[in-house]
Amino acid sequence: MLFHVRMDVAIPHDLDPGRRAELIATEKARAVELQRAGTWVHLWRVVGQYSNISVFDVDSADQLHQILWSLPLFPFMTVTVTALTTHPSSLSEVDG
Ligand SMILES: O=C(O)CC1=CCC(=O)O1
């Protein structure tokens, strides 16, 4: 199942700089791990914003929830999830 996910990040300005750097580093390590596993299929920065647009390929909404909930930066994110399905005019459908 594919899900489009937007993550808007808002880390408090008064958070300890060392803690901030640690959170960002652990978030990056987890994102790389999930990309290498084929779960986090796309990861794009939204121009001019501390936000990303991502596509996840997971077995269920529950699995996606667990992944998102456990991200190090999750407490500082607003997450918007959209479930995706095949478009009938997609080449993958047209060409088989
Ligand atoms: O910077 C972000 O958009 C939040 C984030 C997701 C994966 C990562 O490494 O940072």
Polypeptide structure, described:
With 96 residues, this protein is α+β, with helices and mostly antiparallel strands. It has helices spanning 17-36, 61-69, 91-94; strands at residues 2-9, 40-45, 51-57, 77-84. The chain has one domain (2-94): 2-Layer Sandwich (Alpha-Beta Plaits). It has a 4-stranded antiparallel β-sheet with strand order 2-3-1-4. Strand 2 and strand 3 (51-57) form a beta hairpin. Residues 7, 9, 27-28, 31, 52, 73 line the site of ligand LWBT4IAB. Residues 7, 9, 27-28, 31, 52, 73 line the site of the ligand O=C(O)CC1=CCC(=O)O1.
Gross CATH architecture: 2-Layer Sandwich
**Secondary-structure element string:** EHEEHEH
Estimate what percentage of residues fall within beta strands.
Answer: 25-35%
Oligomer: single chain
CATH superfamily, by name, is: Dimeric alpha+beta barrel
Distance between the terminal alpha carbons, to the nearest Å? 19 Å
Total beta strands = 4
| Class by SSE composition | alpha+beta
What's the number of domains? 1
Task: Please work out how many helical segments DSSP would assign.
Answer: 3
Helix content: 25-40%
Blueprint (SSEs and pairs):
Layout: E1 2-9, H1 17-36, E2 40-45, E3 51-57, H2 61-69, E4 77-84, H3 91-94
Antiparallel strand pairs: 1-3, 1-4, 2-3
The structure holds the ligand O=C(O)CC1=CCC(=O)O1.
Provide tags for this entry:
single chain, 96 residues, alpha+beta, Alpha-Beta Plaits, four-stranded antiparallel sheet, 3 helices, 34% helix, binds ligand LWBT4IAB, MLI_dom, EC 5.3.3.4, Muconolactone Delta-isomerase, Muconolactone_d_Isoase
